[in-house]
Design goal:
The protein has 428 residues and is mainly β. It is 7% helix and 42% strand. The strands form seven sheets. Strands 1, 3, 5, 7, 11 and 12 form a six-stranded mixed beta sheet that branches. The N and C termini lie far apart (52 Å).
Length: 428
C-alpha cells in the first residue's frame, strides 16, 4: 500500500514539474510538490464562494492547504499582479502592495487523530502585513526557505473595484433551438462612473463557466456601444456547451458508505472508498438535481470531529467508468474543483482490459464532492464534458463575468467589474 501511495505522489510531482517548465508559462493554479493536498481559497466564512476580494472590503479571503511531509516547513508567500490573460503586469510590487511583499506563512496546525498525518496551513488576505492598493488579477505564490526558486503553490485570486454594473441573462442558445445543447450568455455593462474613450480596445472581457479557464471566452468585443453602455448580445461568440449536472459523492464519514459510495474498507493503515460504478450519460434523458457546480467542501459527519481542517482524514477514493471499448486519440479524466479544474496525468483514468472500464484512485480529504468525466483529445487544452456526460441547455451552471479596463495612459489591467450569473436564477 505504501508503494502504491508513493507511486501516486510521484506521478503528481512529474506532472506539476512539467507544467512549471512549459515555455509559454503563465501564472496558473498549480501545485509543485507531491506532498501538498487540498488547496482551497475562498471568502472567509463562505466555503463555496470564488476567491474574489472587493478592494478595501472587510471580509478577507482565506487560503488553505495540507502538507503531508509531517513536519513544519519554512514557507513564505508573496503576490504577483497580472493582466487579464494572467501574464505578469509591468508594475513594481510597491505600486500594488501596501506593506511587505514577502512574508512568512506561520499559521499552521498539526492533524489530530487521523490515519494520514499532515500539517494544515492557513493565510488570510489582506492582513496586517499585506494589503492591496489596486484592483486586478493576482497570483499568490508560496515558496520554501525564503527561496523563490523553490515554488510550492501558485493560486489565482481577484481584487475588484466594482466601478461598473453588469446585468445579464443565461438562455438557451439562439442558434441551437433544435438540439438544445448550449447556453448563451447575454449581458450589458453600465459604466456611469468610468469614462471609456475606446471600449473596443480599452475593455477586456473574460467569461468563465464554473471557474474553468480552459474553455473561457476572452477578449469579447462589445456588439453595440451606447451612451454609458456596452452591449454583448451575440448569438455565437458568447455560447458555451451546457454539459450535464455534476455527479457527486459523500465521504464525510468512514463509519458507513455515504451517497454514491458502494463500500468503505479499511486496509491497514488507510481507509478506501469505492464509489458506485458510473455510466455514460450522453445518450440518456436529462435529470435535473441540485449540486455545487463542480465544487467540494471539507466536512465530517462524525460528532467527535470539531475542526474540519485538522481532524478530517484522507481516504483513497476509487472511480470506475465502464465503456464498450477504449476511447482512442485522447484520455478520460476525472474533472472538477477536486482536480483544480485541470485535466492532466494526475487525474487521467487507466483502461482496465479485464473489466472493460476506466479506473482511477485519488487521495481525497473527507468531504462532499462534485465531479464529471471529461474526454481530452490528444494535443488539446480543452476538456470535453459533452462526449461522456452529454449536454443539455437546462443544466445549472455558474458563469463568472470579469470586466477589465486599461486606458491609453494606464499601465495595468484594472478589474472594474465582476458578476456571477446562474443559469437557473438568471435564466431568460
Amino acid at each position: 500500500m505504501k508503494k502504491y501511495f508513493l507511486l501516486i505522489n510521484l506521478t503528481f510531482l512529474l506532472i506539476f514539474c512539467a507544467t512549471a517548465q512549459e515555455d509559454n508559462f503563465y501564472h496558473e493554479n498549480a501545485v509543485y510538490r507531491e506532498n501538498i493536498k487540498t488547496v482551497l481559497m475562498h471568502r472567509k466564512g463562505f466555503d463555496l464562494t470564488n476567491p474574489v476580494l472587493e478592494l478595501n472590503q472587510e471580509i478577507p479571503l482565506i487560503f488553505k492547504f495540507d502538507d503531508f511531509s509531517e513536519e513544519v516547513k519554512n514557507y513564505y508567500y508573496t503576490v504577483i499582479h497580472c493582466d487579464a490573460n494572467w501574464d505578469e503586469s509591468f508594475i513594481d510590487q510597491t505600486e500594488y502592495i501596501d506593506g511587505f511583499a514577502d512574508n512568512p506563512l506561520d499559521d499552521y496546525a498539526l492533524s489530530f487523530n487521523t490515519t494520514f498525518h499532515y500539517v494544515n496551513y492557513q493565510l488570510l488576505l489582506p492582513n496586517e502585513n499585506m494589503r492591496f492598493k489596486v484592483s486586478g488579477n493576482y497570483v499568490l505564490v508560496v515558496y520554501e526557505d525564503n527561496d523563490k526558486e523553490k515554488v510550492v503553490i501558485t493560486q489565482r485570486f481577484y481584487v475588484v473595484e466594482n466601478r461598473v454594473e453588469i446585468k445579464g441573462t443565461v438562455r438557451r442558445a439562439t442558434l441551437d433551438a433544435f438540439k438544445g445543447e448550449n447556453q448563451e450568455i447575454d449581458f450589458t455593462i453600465y459604466h456611469e462612473d468610468v469614462v471609456i474613450e475606446n471600449p473596443r480596445e480599452d475593455v477586456k472581457i473574460v467569461i468563465m463557466q464554473n471557474n474553468r479557464w480552459d474553455n473561457a471566452i476572452r477578449d469579447l468585443k462589445p456588439l453595440y456601444v451606447r451612451e454609458r453602455r456596452l452591449v454583448y448580445d451575440y448569438n455565437r461568440e458568447n455560447v458555451f456547451v451546457a454539459g450535464n449536472e455534476f455527479r457527486y459523492f459523500d465521504i464525510r464519514t468512514n463509519r458507513i458508505p455515504g451517497e454514491n459510495v458502494l463500500s468503505t474498507d479499511y486496509h491497514r493503515p488507510y481507509y478506501h472508498k469505492t464509489l458506485m460504478t458510473d455510466e455514460v450519460r450522453a445518450n440518456k434523458k436529462f435529470f435535473q438535481y441540485k449540486e455545487m457546480n463542480g465544487k467540494y467542501v471539507i466536512e465530517s459527519q462524525d460528532p467527535e470531529v470539531q475542526d474540519f481542517d485538522t481532524e478530517c482524514d484522507y481516504v483513497f477514493t476509487h472511480f470506475s467508468l465502464p465503456l464498450e471499448s477504449i476511447l482512442l486519440g485522447g484520455s478520460v479524466n476525472v474533472f472538477g474543483a477536486l482536480t483544480g479544474w485541470n485535466a492532466n496525468k494526475g487525474n487521467e483514468m487507466t483502461w482496465n482490459f479485464e473489466t472493460s472500464q476506466y479506473e482511477l484512485t485519488l487521495l481525497l480529504k473527507q468531504g462532499y464532492y462534485n465531479y464529471q468525466y471529461v474526454y481530452v483529445e490528444q494535443g488539446s487544452t480543452v476538456a470535453d464534458n459533452k462526449n461522456i456526460e452529454g449536454s443539455f441547455w437546462e443544466t445549472e451552471n455558474d458563469y463568472q463575468i470579469f470586466v477589465y479596463y486599461k486606458s491609453f495612459s494606464g499601465h495595468y489591467d484594472r478589474l472594474v467589474g465582476y458578476r456571477l450569473l446562474n443559469s437557473i436564477e438568471n435564466r431568460n
